[in-house]
Design a protein that fits this description.
Number of strands: 4
Largest sheet: 4 strands, parallel
Strand order of the largest sheet: 1-2-3-4
Strand content: 5-15%
Number of helices: 5
Order of helices and strands: HEHEHEHEH
Shape: globular
Helix content: 25-40%
């Protein structure tokens, strides 16, 4: 297995240890999206990018909704430009069939319409909701409140 770290999309200089964005999307069998949503990353993956990808690529977005153009993703799946996609982030959250083309498409697939055959996997954006995470959150909030009440600086962000 070869792991590639993609360079930014709109740059001509490639930093050491990185692969050009276009080379990454053309050669990868799995694209794991983990970057912030900014004006330069909005719709980073859309029709032009999907058309360059391998037909066996899997796209996994655990970053932010809006980085992957949801309408273009549905089209890419239906046209079989890509093999599959999974996401737990959506342009509008909470996602439902009223506000998400991905949820509507997944529902159609469940009902036997559209022929995606399990190539689109959706989950809610709650990966942090583990017991250990909740306990850490409770402890952190408690420590912050107690520190504040004592006049102490706790967990200061500069």
């Amino acid at each position: 297995m070869t792991v590639q770290l993609a360079e930014r999309k709109d740059t001509s200089s490639i930093r050491p240890g990185r692969t050009s964005f276009s080379e990454t999307i053309k050669t990868s069998t799995v694209l794991f999206i983990t970057l912030p949503l900014t004006p330069s990353t909005a719709n980073l993956l859309s029709v032009p990018e999907f058309s360059l990808m391998r037909p066996d690529v899997l796209i996994i977005n655990v970053a932010r909704g809006g980085i992957v153009d949801e309408d273009a993703l549905v089209d890419a799946l239906k046209e079989k430009w890509i093999q599959g996609a999974a996401t737990d982030v959506f342009v509008e959250e909470p996602a439902g069939k009223e506000n998400s083309v991905l949820v509507r498409t997944a529902r159609e697939w469940e009902e036997g319409i559209g022929g995606l055959n399990g190539r689109l996997v959706l989950s809610p954006h709650v990966a942090w909701w583990a017991r250990a995470s909740i306990e850490k959150l409770k402890w952190t909030v408690s420590a912050n409140v107690v520190g504040w009440a004592r006049g102490e600086v706790v967990n200061q962000v500069l």
